[in-house]
Amino acid sequence: xxxxxxxxxxxxxxxARADTFQRIEVITGVARRRSWPSDVKAAIVQxxxxxxxxxSEVARRHGVAASQLFKWRREAGLRSRPPKPEPVxxxxxxxxxxxxxxxxxxxxxxxxxxxxxxxxxxxxxIPVTAGREVIxxxxxxxxxRRR
Length: 147
Hints:
Layout: H1 8-15, H2 38-47, H3 55-62, H4 66-75, E1 114-119, E2 122-127, H5 132-146
Antiparallel strand pairs: 1-2
């Protein structure tokens, strides 16, 4: 199976197609986290704001976890992509100068409603259009009922 003189890694590498791997990262130290300069972070975040570019796509391109890139966007004050401003359109307006007739003066509608009187002799509802004499007569009538 294996050829003498060749290491297993060399055999695996020779079996793999050239277009299978795009990038190999060799970790040489014990560092657990990469440090990203602020200007590099800002440039990567800026790429996510371009039209038609997904955050995951930018993250893969730079070797960053998408969650890390979303965190950088939050830290930069970006919750989501800014909305595209809609184009402003105006409706056409045509003003014709004519002598407009003045509206006729309409009579106001007569007041509507009721006056409710409650006395010891009873209760009465009187239309507000009732004359003074009618209202006084009703008051006298309610007052006399009590006696």
